[in-house]
UniProtKB/TrEMBL annotation, chains A, B:
Span of domain NrtR DNA-binding winged helix: 238-298
Signal sequence residues: none
Gene3D superfamilies: Winged helix-like DNA-binding domain superfamily/Winged helix DNA-binding domain (1.10.10.10)
Pfam family, one: WHD_NrtR
SUPFAM superfamilies: Nudix, Winged helix' DNA-binding domain
Name this polypeptide is given: NrtR DNA-binding winged helix domain-containing protein
InterPro entries: NMN_biosyn (IPR011213), NUDIX_hydrolase-like_dom_sf (IPR015797), WH-like_DNA-bd_sf (IPR036388), WH_DNA-bd_sf (IPR036390), WHD_NrtR (IPR054105)
Domain of life: Bacteria
Length: 318, 318
DNA sequence: GTGGCTTATACTTATCCTGAGCATAATCGA
DNA sequence: TCGATTATGCTCAGGATAAGTATAAGCCAC
């Protein structure tokens, strides 16, 4: 890729950096969202982008297979982070992390790897609102956030902080917005309420429940969850996480697991069916309590038929 | 950022890469979307990520100001590309491009720079459907695409190609989807119908109108346009491109310029007003034909009041 | 100043989408 | 057979949307 300015070329290897490829690999099993972790569940699969890699994605696939034994299916790029907090340190070169979201199923678990499937709500307990928040966590969160807001210098800043906390966490009778995963993580980091913040130099305080990860990995995971929660609403990506055949309730449970909240059953079915995303297989689910459900499969045809995109503009049809 | 696996660290500088920062800097002037270009309008502002840069964004800001004299305001990351087509060449290290979308206004044009504002439809003539497509372009496009489809080996492949072309370009009575900017560009590239493809080794054919750029820059621009077209529908980002005060028609013209298609006037107004995105300034537009319009300003308060996000799931309120 | 041109803005109508609840069906086990 | 459990069909009100009609308020030529 030719750099546009002549200056770019002149820079040469003096400005070399190292690039890490990081994967948020997601599966949903029995209504619980899982992510692939390594290093005692404290890190995401990752490795450096090397000469030999033909592209970023092939490099990522190589690392994930090597570390987890799990082949990558659906993959999309998430975000590129640079290391932060090492500003003046000109000795060690910059390191950047290029992160990806991968969707798959939790079968074919590779043997002989130190990789595991971990529930993603272990890392973000406050993101699971399906059964409402545990009263204890809700209380802790609210009081810690309020303390953080109060600790600001001026009353103006105090109000700003509290407003931000209230919006992202749905306090003061505001609606909970499940997509703000990253914003909530960033706020907790700034407020020094999670271990990573303390590790990076924040004043040591009592910390909120939720398992930490190395480096930026929990931030990357938050980015992945946010992306996925947004995307299931306008692209049929849930099906990447489903088995070939499934009941509508299983599908609903998967969506709820990802979104972290419950949906209205009948309306969910209407939505799915009117969009013609699925078709009956003819078979019936066995081994269930209650009335047996029809089995469905994803209609792969829809991907070819229409390019699904949401219009929110009053486009004129002329 | 600690690499997760021990392997990552061991790699060291042998796997060093160079990272370029590339900016798609957008403004809208008199109903025409513009982008900042350098190098005789054949490239986007860009430069390498260096030691001295404290973060990716500060590096980008430094380069853009140095090359264009224009300060960056609103910025968001677009995508990270690796150079492609240089697989085996282990001599020159990998080079990756981290691209950003920036939104501003076309005032304060820096003097003494080789930078210009260029209309973005010069680079993508087929993306402007506000006045319908010029009949000539429509014809050329359709026939070239059909020829490309026909040139496939098997009839199965031929049908696949045509279906893809028809979906992305809204042929065969399908709806035009203005968000598929990147998909259309990629298809034209694969079909060898644009200069960049020929440059990169495609068989030389007659090429479609539309000005090329160096390297991947037109692909990056396509990514930026697509992102912006999608985003104006669910986030109030248009206002970054508007002057402090504006009439509703000016706002509408800006949206239409970005989307490349017309919207229904009355419904557009209702949409804007019901969302309480703007408020009257009390002043009236001067210097106009027809009945003078009220001037409005963006209500910055909305950003604080609500976290605007689209729900497309039948969430239950219990 | 009047008629015609242009744009702004208010109002109407039919249709569709959405959230929510009610009712019934099918299966199992006590 | 009853009760528990899940599946599935149906209704209904309210709101959002697409599209069109009508009126208001300026300017300009004459």
């Amino acid at each position: 890729m030719a750099g546009a300015s002549t200056k770019s070329r002149a820079a040469g290897s003096a400005n070399a950096v190292t690039a890490d490829l990081v994967a948020v690999l997601v599966a949903v099993t029995e209504g619980e969202p899982k992510i692939m972790t390594i290093a005692n569940d404290g890190a995401l699969p990752s490795g450096p982008f090397e000469f030999a890699h033909r592209s970023l994605q092939t490099g990522l696939r190589a690392w994930v297979e090597a570390q987890t034994g799990h082949p990558l299916g659906y993959v999309e790029q998430l975000y590129t982070f640079a290391d932060r907090g090492r500003a003046g340190d000109a000795k060690s070169p910059h390191s950047i992390s290029i992160s990806y979201l991968g969707l798959t199923r939790e079968d074919k678990v590779g043997q002989g790897f130190e990789a595991h499937w971990s529930g993603w709500y272990e890392y973000f307990p406050w993101e699971d609102r399906r059964a409402g928040l545990p009263a204890s966590l809700a209380k802790t969160l609210a009081s810690r956030l309020r303390a953080w807001a109060k600790s600001a210098e001026t009353t103006g800043l105090q109000r700003q902080r509290w407003q931000r906390a209230a919006i992202t966490f749905g306090l003061d009778d505001r609606e909970w917005n499940e997509e703000l995963v990253l914003q909530r993580y960033e706020l907790l980091y700034e407020a020094g309420l999670i271990p990573e913040a303390v590790r990076d130099g924040a004043a040591a305080t009592t910390v909120i429940p939720g398992r930490p990860m190395t480096g930026d990995h929990r931030r990357i995971l938050a980015t992945g969850i946010a992306r996925l929660r947004a995307k299931i609403k306008y692209r049929p990506v849930v099906f990447e996480l489903m088995p070939a055949e499934f009941t509508l309730l299983q599908l609903q449970r998967s969506v709820e697991a990802l979104a972290g909240r419950l949906v209205h059953k009948q309306n969910f079915r209407r939505l799915i069916e009117q969009q013609q995303l699925v078709e009956e297989t003819g078979a019936i689910a066995a081994d269930t309590v209650g009335r047996p459900a029809k089995l469905f499969r994803f209609r792969h045809g829809v991907l070819a038929e229409r390019a699904i995109a949401g219009t929110k503009l009053p486009l004129s049809r002329t």
